[in-house]
């Protein structure tokens, strides 16, 4: 099913109140599937202390004709099941705000790893830095796989550092809009792998996706790991061999690496 990228993006204004709790402070950015706003809420802790929570709110338009998939609802499901992991954002709220808008409110993160890499000399990390980052990135993928989901778009721009002052060394996995369950509960109550489709839609980013994704075959856990490997190579070397090529030539270069 196509995404909602061609629908009008939801629009909110400064001081708009969301759910009677969250106040819109401004727009953080926009993408193919919606808009991200900075929101804030005043809460009282268990000790009676007043505290302001600043968060990010993703908003997605709903196609009332049903022609476009609602990626934000799927993202909320995955993020809710991942709240035990230190490598994802905290989920404060998520669901349908109105008949035409879905929202998700989550904790703020810092800069994406892709941005951080490009600020380094020769646009690459030192080997020790790349390996420390890789360990956290791999743990995040492992946590996602452990709840029965694939990410299907692993890349540095979908990882971000935490926020100042205590989270700058923490890595968070983002954007579960392409996530898909690879297991399901069978009639006997046991969890089993879903039957692979003969053809699957292309999902991911060409520079980082696996050969299976290029060939529109069903993706599995190993495909997330191929994307992870390409991402780490780019962190260490500054670029991938197929950065400037497209289509079949990139597939051939990836096939040579796999042997």
From TrEMBL:
InterPro entries for the chain: CK1_Ser-Thr_kinase, Kinase-like_dom_sf, Prot_kinase_dom
Superkingdom classification of source: Eukaryota
PROSITE patterns: PROTEIN_KINASE_DOM
SMART domains for the chain: S_TKc (SM00220)
Residue ranges of the TM segments: none
Entry's Gene Ontology molecular function annotations: ATP binding; protein kinase activity
Domain Protein kinase: from-to ranges: 22-259
One Pfam family cited in the UniProt record for this chain: Pkinase
Protein name (Swiss-Prot/TrEMBL): Protein kinase domain-containing protein
């Amino acid at each position: 099913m196509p995404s909602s990228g061609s629908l009008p993006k939801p629009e909110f204004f400064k001081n708009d109140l969301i759910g009677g709790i969250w106040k819109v402070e401004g727009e953080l950015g926009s993408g193919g599937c919606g808009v991200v706003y900075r929101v804030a809420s005043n809460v009282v802790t268990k000790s009676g202390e007043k505290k302001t929570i600043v968060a990010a709110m993703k908003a997605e338009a709903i196609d009332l004709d049903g022609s476009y998939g609602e990626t934000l609802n799927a993202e909320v499901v995955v993020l809710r099941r991942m709240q035990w992991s230190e490598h994802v954002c905290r989920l404060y709220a998520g669901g349908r705000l109105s008949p035409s808008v879905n929202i998700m409110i989550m904790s703020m993160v810092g800069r994406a790893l892709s941005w951080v890499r490009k600020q380094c000399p020769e646009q690459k990390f030192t080997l020790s830095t790349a390996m420390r980052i890789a360990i956290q990135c791999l743990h995040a993928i492992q946590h996602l796989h452990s709840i029965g989901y694939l990410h299907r778009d692993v890349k540095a721009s979908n990882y971000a550092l935490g926020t100042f002052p205590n989270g700058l060394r923490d890595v968070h996995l983002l954007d579960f809009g392409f996530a898909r369950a690879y297991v399901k509960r069978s009639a006997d109550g046991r969890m089993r792998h879903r039957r692979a489709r003969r053809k699957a839609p292309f999902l991911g980013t060409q520079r980082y996706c696996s050969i299976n994704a290029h060939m529109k075959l069903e993706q599995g856990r190993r495909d997330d790991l191929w994307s992870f490997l390409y991402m780490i190579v780019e962190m260490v070397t500054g670029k991938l061999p197929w950065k400037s090529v497209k289509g079949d030539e990139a597939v051939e270069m990836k096939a040579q690496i796999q042997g």
